[in-house]
Amino acid sequence: xxxxxxxxxxxxxxxxxxxxxxxxxxxxxxxxxxxxxxxxxxxxxxxxxxxxxxxxxxxxxxxxxxxxxxxxxxxxxxxxxxxxxxxxxxxxxxxxxxxxxxxxxxxxxxxxxxxxxxxxxxxxxxxxxxxxxxxxxxxxxxxxxxxxxxxxxxxxxxxxxxxxxxxxxxxxxxxxxxxxxxxxxxxxxxxxxxxxxxxxxxxxxxxxxxxxxxxxxxxxxxxxxxxxxxxxxxxxxxxxxxxxxxxxxxxxxxxxxxxxxxxxxxxxxxxxxxxxxxxxxxxxxxxxxxxxxxxxxxxxxxxxxxxxxxxxxxxxxxxxxxxxxxxxxxxxxxxxxxxxxxxxxxxxxxxxxxxxxxxx
Length: 360
Ligand SMILES: NC(=O)c1ccc[n+]([C@@H]2O[C@H](COP(=O)([O-])OP(=O)(O)OC[C@H]3O[C@@H](n4cnc5c(N)ncnc54)[C@H](O)[C@@H]3O)[C@@H](O)[C@H]2O)c1
Hints:
Elements: E1 10-14, H1 19-30, E2 34-39, H2 48-51, E3 59-62, H3 68-78, E4 82-85, H4 92-97, H5 99-118, E5 125-129, H6 155-175, E6 185-191, E7 194-195, H7 205-214, E8 219-220, E9 227-229, E10 231-232, H8 234-249, H9 251-254, E11 256-260, E12 267-269, H10 270-281, E13 286-287, H11 307-313, H12 321-336, H13 342-359
Parallel strand pairs: 1-2, 1-4, 2-3, 4-5, 5-6, 6-11, 7-10, 8-13
Antiparallel strand pairs: 9-12
Helix pairs in contact: 3-5, 5-6, 7-10, 10-12, 12-13
The structure holds nicotinamide-adenine-dinucleotide.
């Protein structure tokens, strides 16, 4: 899929103990890259990182992204050519409870990664993962474009909007100059809500479904009518991988910011997603508690325009929402029956995805 680009390359992934980062690190390993991961230990039980035994496949470094020295040391050890920065506090609700940790981790942590990149001559391209929530949300019915204003109502969204502004300043001030001998390919990637096997984060709909269904309990849905651009985790990850490759090949052209989301129609309501999940799982119930007036504000309507990535990167979503749900259920069924090797389950889906993408 990537014409052997990643084979033998040194790649640093921050946040490799998390949901998206563990899928990305395993995919890079399958592409024969030498992967170094930098993150805190996994913070859910169970978690994808342990279930796929990723520690045995990558150079695993435990450290805090808020610690500049620790981040710099990881770069010194890995000498990466490519960097994917995913480490973050990614939950809106947690950001209301602990805004300082969210801002320190998401903005300050990214500044540390950018400083390490600045002083690491081996880096040829870097992708910083932010979020679709970085945009000033106007509850528009149409999709946000890359040049729409940044914003953020809650601390998480604001931290991602601010991260975007910080990244744009580093790009203009340092990375498109000749500090590295040649310009560095540098971009931010904004994706919507992702689903897939191996996520157990709190306050996310699929982990909530799986926690309830595996115990035979009803799924409690607090925000049934919120609409999100759901995607299978492999779709945005394929975008990040294509982007980092293009950045290394032609930094001047591809540096900037990129949206990765589903095609029109992939935006479905939380309630609909849970109903489809139950159908694919083969049973289960939903409970909607009376609306809580004191619940913290969350965006209701959020869409991304993906025209830029489709036209310029030739990236496109590979799985529609029905397939994304089926693949997710298939993975959790493998986990639920306890007999299957879960690294194999993840790798099978990666290979299946690559095949589907080739024929599209
Ligand atoms: N999951 C989604 O739907 C979604 C949607 C849009 C954007 N994102 C973004 O994608 C990225 C990955 O999200 P995820 O869903 O995999 O989250 P996750 O919580 O599963 O993983 C987060 C990772 O960041 C690491 N991390 C957190 N604080 C750290 C610190 N102080 N020092 C070092 N490492 C730290 C964790 O150890 C973990 O490896 C995040 O930047 C998130 O904001 C996720």
